[in-house]
Design goal:
4 strands, globular, 122 residues, alpha+beta, single chain
């Protein structure tokens, strides 16, 4: 669990659009359950807007989630559900290997993950 792997930290509509697809993967429900069940390591008291739909404001809380290896924003499950965004093959393999349930991290592990995330963001 050394280092961090990031996914779904979109900064522009173009970047998000490049990962969007017209149809869902066969296991999108399992992927969504996994992404949404992960532990939160950082949160801010605001809501994110949809980068592709200017009328969709405040679509989800803003936080960073982790399974202990990968980190993603809370907007990622929203974008997977709405735009069927493509996830890295390595993350999909991990989700499948864990049966669609991320390992439950205790408080100490979440704190360590938060520290790694912040240190790797600089």
């Amino acid at each position: 669990m050394n280092g961090i792997r990031r996914v779904g930290f979109y900064t522009s509509a173009e970047e998000l659009r490049s990962d969007a697809r017209p149809e869902a993967d066969r296991d999108e429900v399992t992927v969504l359950e996994y992404l949404e069940a992960a532990g939160a390591v950082l949160a801010v008291p605001s809501r994110a807007d949809d980068l592709l739909d200017p009328t969709a404001r405040g679509v989800c809380e803003q936080a960073v989630l982790t399974d202990g290896e990968w980190f993603w924003p809370t907007t990622l499950p929203y974008y997977v559900r709405r735009y069927h965004v493509r996830l890295p093959d390595e993350l999909l393999a991990r989700i499948r290997a864990l049966g669609g349930r991320p390992s439950e991290l205790d408080d100490r592990e979440l704190m360590a993950a938060a520290e790694r995330f912040v240190a790797g963001s600089g």
